[in-house]
Amino acid sequence: MSNQISKQDLLKIILDEVDNFDLVEEDIIHMLINEKVAQDVTELHQQKLSFGDKMSDKLAEFAG
Question: Is this structure's pTM higher than 0.70?
C-alpha cells in the first residue's frame, strides 16, 4: 500500500473544506484540475458489451 494520496482523494478533501477558501484559493483549486474527473459512462458501457449485445443493438437500431 502506498502512502501517496490519489488526485481524486485530494480533490475530495479540498472540496470538503471549500467553505473555508476565498476566491483566490478557489482559482488555485481549479488550476489543479487539469484533466477530467468524470468518466463517460456510455463509453464504459460500450466497452463491456458482448458480441451478442452489440449484434442485438444493431438489429434493434435497424429493425426498430
Answer: no
